[in-house]
Amino acid sequence: MGPVTQEPAHHSRPRPAASRPAPAYSALAFLECSRCPGTCYDAGRIQGTCDCGAPLLARYDLEQAAALTGPDQIAARPPGLWRYHELLPVRSAGSVVSLGEGLTPLLPMERLGAALGVPRLLMKDEGALPTGTFKARGAAVGVSRAAELGATGVALPSNGNAGAAWAVYAARAGLPCLVVLPAGSPEITWAECVAAGARAYLVDGLIGDAGRLVRAAVADRPGYQDVSTLKEPYRLEGKKTIGLEIAEQLGWRAPDVIICPTGGGVGLIGMAKGLRELAQMGWIGPALPRLVAVQAVGCAPVVRAFARQADTTEPWPQARTAAFGLTVPDPLGGFLILEAIRATAGTAMAVTDEQLLASQRQAARTEGTWVCPEGAACLAAVERLRAAGWLTDTDEVVVVNTGAGLKYPQTMPAHPPLLHADAKIPSGAEAPMPEA
């Protein structure tokens, strides 16, 4: 579907379209190409990417959104990401597909922060969401909007957790769902897809191979929407609510630094977008947090491009890491990730599997938080950034843990000693510690 109108690049006060009714639930105005400012698309129809192949971004009438609501009104609403509905794309409350997602804890990590030399360390713990990962945010908003616009089904490639989340929310909405996953993805996510009734297939390859299969399948399924990462505009809108929640939980202000695991990059791009919208509305100050993209040494296209001062990423060969969600060798939104971290004076860093797995164990034993390996990569990055002097002991740092460690049991093997029923548990220093 080609562009429908031309709009100015600045969108704090977009011109209203005569055919668009005044928003009551959402202030969504139009969709804009992320590469071609001013090239806009009708938000009232199912859209994929721009004709140039770049992702489309949802734009809102922020002046009207600010007139419709404010921090005080939002505080009085039920907990969950839909409390920000004026800044989300779903047009009516009746179209919302929900499993109670959103408003996850922002946890002080005092002991771990002290050990890492960052005493003001906080963790946004997305493991509390339905399906156990932050993918539930994007699926909730994406499925809601797909159903509202009349899609007959959704299809996507996934490294695991996104497929599981979209399958679950599609089931909630009564929509068919097709998921293709790499054979190396976590088995628990296959089970989630199947349990939710999705048509799930494994491919002997990586997510790019899964994506090619999905594109061919959608062509044969009239009405299906390809909801691959950044190939539809609304998953990003769900992910941006992480940033909105962090700002609200800090009393409508931004922290100094936000550190986010980065595969496809939707979380980081979304947070940057959401915080920028809040700043334009005057709900937070103009200074945005320094954004840090964390990847694994075995798959680090963003880190490599950042180090080379490139504007785009290049495919990463033979991608492999224990943090399977970071195995995205050729992110469609690589240029948007790079723009976001540079615009905020942020950085990009890759950590080894050994470092992230060590940080995962440290967080569990120090704070009682079993984080996913992708979230653990961020904690490993905190340690390295503090040692390098990029972080100081006065910085307020938020690490985004994107999922529950319980979904990755293979990263925390445990072999407690077996006792006979009539045995005595050793006491004191004699007691062996269970292995992990």
Provide an overview of this structure.
It is built from 14 helices and 14 strands. The chain is 33% helix and 15% strand. The longest helix is centred in the middle third of the chain and has 16 residues, at 266-281. By secondary structure, it is of the alpha/beta class. The protein has helices at residues 62-68, 71-75, 110-116, 135-148, 161-173, 187-195, 207-219, 235-239, 241-249, 266-281, 301-307, 334-343, 353-367, 373-387; strands spanning 5-6, 28-33, 39-41, 56-60, 106-108, 121-125, 153-157, 177-182, 199-203, 224-226, 257-261, 290-296, 347-351, 397-401. The strands form 3 sheets. It has a 6-stranded mixed sheet, sandwiched between helices. It has a 4-stranded antiparallel sheet with strand order 1-3-2-4, with no helix packed on it. Strands 9-8-7-10 form a 4-stranded parallel sheet, with helices on both faces.
Question: How large is the count of helical segments?
Answer: 14
How many runs of DSSP E, i.e. beta strands? 14
The computed structural class is alpha/beta
Radius of gyration: 22 Å
Q: How much helicity do the residues have?
A: 25-40%
